[in-house]
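ingest -> validate -> predict -> emit
validate: passed (alphabet ok, no gaps, 165 aa)
predict: started
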Amino acid sequence: MRVVNDPSFGVDAPVYVISVAAELAGMHPQTLRQYDRLGIVSPGRASGRGRRYSMRDIQTLREVQRLSQEEGVNLAGIKRILELQHEVDQLREQVFHLANELEAARRAVSRRGRPAHPEGGPVRGELVRRTRVTIFNTATDPEERPERGGGLGDTGDTRGQSGPD
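emit:
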């Protein structure tokens, strides 16, 4: 038995057969089939290929009905409106996550400006700059040079190196 607070039983759980969904949305089942064919509302499918509507699908059907009856929008317009609403929702979610990342980066930068520990070491969690050192083999005889990338002390780091390539 499923508990109603179970996350798998949310607004996106495809649980309603077409007759129940049509009744909840205040429409005829044939209208729901037409909307499915047009891609306006795409319900889930049961193992026997029967349509299963979620509560979100039913809310969308109600919005389709409102746009059609109250606003006079045709089905092509309704489909485009729903697509744009979905895109706006995705963009809002992306902005939310980017704003959180930006805030975390700002906090990290502000912590860098704090004074170090009284002992002179870095504060725990503070960003610390590290410098890499590369030792170059200066032998002029090709026999004395190690193969590229294999010299003693060679870190493979080529940043800051100058000279012919």
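The longest strand covers residues 44-45.
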